[in-house]
């Protein structure tokens, strides 16, 4: 590429300063030369130290006094970003030094690009894939699946193709798309927000792509944990909420019927039999909230300013 598009790398920190420091080390070693890096400290206690700020003077640090969730934290960075592309990366990802060049080169050739994710591989295990594209969220079950999940990486997915969903741990979106569709939906707080964002982009005529020409390594489940009632609550609540926001008519009716007559009883019985009572409680409260809560949010109508790329200079 003769002109290197500017890339704004955004990552959210929540009580993980050491991990964020390691992540910034990977970013610092990237060979791509036109980058700005934004770290959003999402209500950490204690907040990020002055040491990390002085060690990475080139990084823009945004401090939020409260935890705004995955979408809310990223949206602070989205408003501040000035890049042609915004790249949302979890702070538990590992980046190869030359990771960014093929990603941006491939993305720049896709005129209908809404969002994209590179190949994502697990940190643990023997060269195992976490994501190589994804199916859509089924209107009845409210479930989707990652393509290539737990397969060994043999090079089979070293290609580019249209897919249904991007992955939130490494999500690339052109700035012009954010200007068109708005910021990430904050109603979800945790889980399903990038899926909902993808649906919004597709309704506007954009496409979601898997860019298997490069990869990130993901230390999965560091932020929330593998067996946490909080995770159970948000997955249950947001599964229903996603279906309510994106399914209409018979799709929603059949989806709700499946959830409450099959999925919910099955999950409850499994948790009760395994004596995971906190998880059972989380399933019930998540289902009630997901069904009854308002399905719209003020962030659904918030857009970044096309003329002033840095709306939040006061931060």
UniProtKB/TrEMBL annotation:
Pfam families: Glycos_transf_2. The keyword Glycosyltransferase applies. Residues 8-178 form the Glycosyltransferase 2-like domain. GO terms for molecular function: glycosyltransferase activity. Keywords: Glycosyltransferase, Transferase. Belongs to the glycosyltransferase 2 family. This is Glycosyltransferase family 2 protein. It comes from Marinigracilibium pacificum.
